[in-house]
């Protein structure tokens, strides 16, 4: 869902090429219905372009940077050469996610017995303003464990959350680091074992022996901030136990 009628200068856009000529190519902007774009041959690639069809063909989708906007004609000037491969891959992935989000949004509207336009005006535009993209809104809703968006009223929220949880899989992120643990006590092995025993309710924590005196700790969560908080909690638990059992510990975040 795009709430802007036209892109801004500098935006990356997905373009479907509709016509290739000797000195440029025309295309339609996939995210902006009714908006066309033009890529001059000088903006196709760095260096001299002898045959433009070596780079572009009808039906091809490419990621371009907007370098000029004509709001009256709904036409934008585009550059292909100013987009690197990494930017192109990320933009295509984002566009595909938004396509998925649009389909999920239609399902939400159907369950509410409302038209897409009604839902867009009631809460769709607001969600895009809050989260940047509709897909990001679905991701956020899929992770909600309690009341979601308490400052916004609407019977649509429960349906939106339900659809999000049914269809969006949140990938896990991980944070890690290394403990270096020392003990010269006669029962040092047992003390170290106790120091590195983490309560199960702390979170999704994995500890593995790397080689004396190093142990690697990995914390996984669907939320990066929560993973960071859990790792800090683990470090605190280990330090508290180490102090009590007179074990030396040093932690380094990876």
Short summary:
Helices cover 37% and strands 27% of the residues. The chain has 254 residues and is α+β, with helices and mostly antiparallel strands.
- Taking the alpha carbons of the first and last residues, their distance comes to 38 Å
How are helices and strands ordered from N to C? Answer: EEEEEHHHHEHEEHE
User: Largest sheet, order of strands side by side?
Assistant: 1-2-3-5-4
Q: Strand count, sense and closure of the main sheet?
A: 5 strands, mixed, barrel
How helix-rich are the residues, as a percent range?
25-40%
Q: Note the beta-strand portion.
A: 25-35%
Alpha-carbon Rg, integer: 26 Å
Mean of the pLDDT scores?
93
Could you say which structural class the secondary elements and strand pairing correspond to? alpha+beta
CATH class of the largest domain: Mainly Alpha
Total E-strand runs: 9
For CATH, the homologous superfamily of the largest domain is named as Translation initiation factor 2, subunit 1, domain 2
Stated plainly, the CATH topology of the largest domain is called DNA polymerase, domain 1
- Into how many domains do the coordinates divide? 3
Uncertain regions spanning at least 5 consecutive residues: none
CATH architecture descriptor text of the largest domain: Orthogonal Bundle
Tell me the number of helical segments per DSSP (H or I, 4 or more residues long): 6
User: What overall form do the CA principal axes indicate?
Assistant: elongated
Write up this protein.
This protein is an alpha+beta fold and 254 residues long. The chain folds into 3 domains: 11-83, Nucleic acid-binding proteins (OB fold (Dihydrolipoamide Acetyltransferase, E2P), Beta Barrel), CATH 2.40.50; 87-167, Orthogonal Bundle (DNA polymerase, domain 1); 173-253, Alpha-Beta Plaits, CATH 3.30.70.1130. Helix content is 37%, strand content 27%. It has 6 helices and 9 strands. It has a 5-stranded mixed β-barrel with strand order 1-2-3-5-4. Strands 7-8-6-9 form a 4-stranded antiparallel beta sheet, with helices on one face. A hairpin with a 2-residue loop joins strand 7 (204-211) and strand 8. Helix 1 (85-111) crosses helix 2 (116-131), helix 2 (116-131) packs across helix 3 (134-142) and helix 3 packs across helix 4 (156-167).
